[in-house]
């Protein structure tokens, strides 16, 4: 699945140019879209995208600015992550957007990983648009991990109080790896060794004239054996950004 970044640019421009009413409410609306199901054991892959220094962002006095940044960040990342028949869960946890996919084959791992390149390039676009509108740029980490994990729906059947629980490495490791991107290491994308091992040969095949292994780096600062970080992007979109994002 591709990402219509020109439509995305218009949506973000509309958000940043518009007015947002900050409603004071003592009670948040509930989400009743959870279901209860049996347990499964399967290959799953998770992507977590986390805003850096979100505590300082959320504490800013200009709450309209904060609302615009958070909405711009979440709306287009969700657009990139959604609409895939491998998707099993997609949501927001605080300042983090995440998605979980079923990935039984290497080809699935490769296609899902490409979403991180779209997100990485989108964040370049978002920062360019933030500068255009007189706002500060943001930093974010993108964590991605793969695991052969157990998945259950936990809660109390019939009460409406239940949620998916992902037991294993994929979700927990992706969440942790996202905290290293654009902070402990200079690149946004941090991927587990299992993801790297499942995508590197396909990358070499698709880019035979490039030193693909040189795109991925290791760091002793990441306490997961074999984890890598990189700055892969979608070049057509990034070139369009560099050209000033013409309509």
Automatic annotation (TrEMBL):
Residue ranges annotated for the Guanylate cyclase domain, each copy included: 45-178
Entry-linked InterPro entries: A/G_cyclase, Nucleotide_cyclase
Annotated transmembrane regions: none
Protein name stated in the entry: Adenylate/guanylate cyclase domain-containing protein
Source organism per UniProt: Gordonibacter faecis
